[in-house]
Amino acid sequence: xxxRQVLQVFEQYQKSRTQFVQTVAELATRPQNIETLQNAGxxxxxxxxxxxxxxxxxxxxxxALGRLANYNDDLAEAVVxxxxxxxxxxxxxxxxxxxxxxxxxxxxAVARHSPALAQAVVDCGALDALVVSLEExxxxxxxxxxxxxxxxxxxxxxxxQAVVExxxxxxxxxxxxxxxVALKRxxxxxxxxxxxxxxxxxxxxxxxxxxxxxxxxxxNPDAKLKRQVFSALSQIAKxxxxxxxLVVEAEVFPAVLACLRDPxxxxxxxxxxxxxxxTKHTPELSQMIVNTGGVAAVIDYxxxxxxxxxxxxxxxxxxxxxxSENLAMAVIVSKGVPQLTLCxxxxxxxxxxxxxxxxxxxxxxxxxxxxxxxxxxxxxxRLLGLYMDTDSSEDLQVKAKKALxxxxxxxxxxxxxxxxxxxxxxxxxxxxVGQFSKVLPHDSKARRLFVTSxxxxxxxxxxxxxxxxxxxxxxxxxxCYPEEIVRYYSPGYSETLLERVEKYQPV
Length: 507
Fold this sequence. Notes:
Blueprint: H1 3-27, H2 31-39, H3 42-46, H4 55-71, H5 73-81, H6 85-94, H7 97-111, H8 115-123, H9 126-133, H10 139-153, H11 157-165, H12 168-176, H13 181-195, H14 199-207, H15 210-215, H16 223-237, H17 241-249, H18 265-279, H19 283-291, H20 294-303, H21 311-323, H22 325-333, H23 336-346, H24 350-364, H25 368-375, H26 379-388, H27 394-408, H28 414-417, H29 420-423, H30 426-439, H31 444-452, H32 455-461, H33 469-478, H34 483-489, H35 493-503
Helix pairs in contact: 1-4, 4-5, 4-7, 6-7, 6-9, 7-8, 7-10, 9-10, 10-13, 12-13, 13-16, 16-18, 18-21, 20-21, 20-23, 21-22, 21-24, 23-24, 24-27, 26-27, 27-30, 30-33
């Protein structure tokens, strides 16, 4: 065989390998092909090509493996069992930038599925190699490495701590300062994934100077970057008063309120989540949000959206209202009650409705004035309906009952209470009747209205256990009226009168 023929054989072999990896990489982009590729044993065929002498074949083989591993945890598991990870980690340090991106993609694709698979990535020594990749000149390599680190960190505190101990945080904060928007996004996302697990990890993120750099980007025109920035700030602020105060001290308010009108729904949601995580801690932090116009802005936001994106805004109003009478009144004055009532009628998901009834309960539980503001919006029958509805989730029923009781115990606005006399079960009825027994002895106009509206008649029809709180409340109400009036409205009194008519003998 001549030298030329030998070269042709090698050239043909190289073309075949190139065509094979390119075809597999292309087929792996379509879900319908995955099972066939898996059954054909493609993993074992790709593995030796990671060590191919031709760089493009190496890179394409890694890309194909990444796409397969990204598809499901079985294929990711196959990458781990095929002993492919150590080769990828070794290549991260040795190969060119194209291969490094592909290798980091495979590590990310494996790590994303579960803590166990992410731990397998850590165990093969990937963290050190990924952190070194964050120092690369090429922004694409940094992006791929940052993304993989974020996917490892997001699973649990242990894995997140491993990312921190590998020295990733300072480099991620440096990535926030790079000009490439995509790199900023990934760095912010990874910092968010680290900070979310514990106050200690969040403090570690803060100690690297992340807050100041995140705060500078809250008004960046890129929506996807803002999503990640607000997510990271929320994950820091949620853990403690001190961390929330550090976020506030970065002077992101009131500037971020403009983002509640952002065209991107997730930017709006993440801003509201940040406000929720800040307001939940103390009255002082809530008051700061109120003073910057945050409550009114969130109420407007709730009017412009539907579904799950409403949830953080609803909870934020509840947290503000929970702290004090004045803060609850600030929500009421800003027309928070009609907006929450609208959310209650529009939403169908039980967890959103549960948050809404909880927020209404926080608004109405402080004083008679607060309770009246909530009750006058027609909320009480709705709360009762949700509590008694067998289709409501257990959490919704519990929250509706608690909100109802807390509002009832303060409510002296009798017209709002009266409809409940007809529908409430005895455990709620005792609170309703109890409020009438408190108000009627001191209000002659209310006593007269209670008779003409049919309320007194309804009370006489209630069957209460002797000696129970409900019976005591009924007795207190009856003592507000002449005995003959009470008898007149008691069940069976008309029959008694008719019997007396029949027995009466005219003179």
